From TrEMBL:
This protein specifically catalyzes the removal of signal peptides from prolipoproteins. NCBIfam families: lspA (TIGR00077), PRK14770.1 (NF011352). This is Lipoprotein signal peptidase. The chain crosses the membrane at residues 12-28, 74-91, 98-115, 135-155. The gene is lspA. It catalyses: Release of signal peptides from bacterial membrane prolipoproteins. Hydrolyzes -Xaa-Yaa-Zaa-|-(S,diacylglyceryl)Cys-, in which Xaa is hydrophobic (preferably Leu), and Yaa (Ala or Ser) and Zaa (Gly or Ala) have small, neutral side chains. Belongs to the peptidase A8 family. It is a multi-pass membrane protein. The lineage of its organism: Bacteria, Pseudomonadati, Pseudomonadota, Alphaproteobacteria, Acetobacterales. Keywords: Aspartyl protease, Cell membrane, Hydrolase, Membrane, Protease, Transmembrane, Transmembrane helix. Pathway: Protein modification; lipoprotein biosynthesis (signal peptide cleavage). InterPro entries: Peptidase_A8 (IPR001872).
Length: 167
């Protein structure tokens, strides 16, 4: 019976991925509670935080970066939940740390935005970075976690491919 040292650590990566998902979900939902009910951003609309950052209230009825204009709220919710289920399968099977972290970030972010759609009918976006006349889309912690998760997954793919060529 062969025991691979990497196999011994697989459960730890699963736990790290699940912990990442829970942390992302918690931070995302707490930031939105703070924005909505403590800072009262819907009433204030915009609060300058730094020269390059505002908290700007946007109710996003669409998908990422406003795509699809908010049609099919339930389609977005169901699609997101199916993606989460698929990512949970990948997470359970993951054998690499970056894939586990990536799945956790994406799962936590996706669930955070689904909760918003269920609670408010739209996603709560509030982070607005800008420099001079340049302005980025308004987004939230969940969106950031999803983008970072995808980036980590791409980095992992690159590293695995590179190891394969030079290994």
């Amino acid at each position: 019976m062969r025991t691979d040292r990497a196999d011994h650590f697989v459960p730890r990566w699963r736990l790290i991925g699940l912990a990442t998902a829970l942390i992302v979900l918690f931070v995302d939902q707490m930031s939105k509670e703070w924005i909505l009910y403590w800072l009262d951003l819907p009433l204030r609309r915009t609060v300058s935080v730094m020269p390059c950052l505002n908290f700007t209230m946007v109710w996003n009825h669409a998908v990422t970066f406003g795509m699809f204009g908010g049609h099919g709220r339930w389609l977005f919710i169901v699609t997101s939940l199916l993606a989460v289920l698929g990512l949970l399968v990948v997470l359970v099977r993951a054998r690499r740390r970056l894939v586990s972290l990536a799945c956790g970030g994406i799962i936590g972010g996706a669930i955070g935005n689904v909760i918003d759609r269920l609670r408010y009918g739209a996603v709560v976006d509030f982070l607005h970075f800008h420099v001079g006349d340049w302005s980025w889309y308004v987004f939230n912690i969940a969106d950031s976690a999803i983008v970072c998760g995808v980036g980590l997954w791409l980095l992992d793919s690159f590293l695995v491919e590179r190891r394969g060529r030079h290994g």
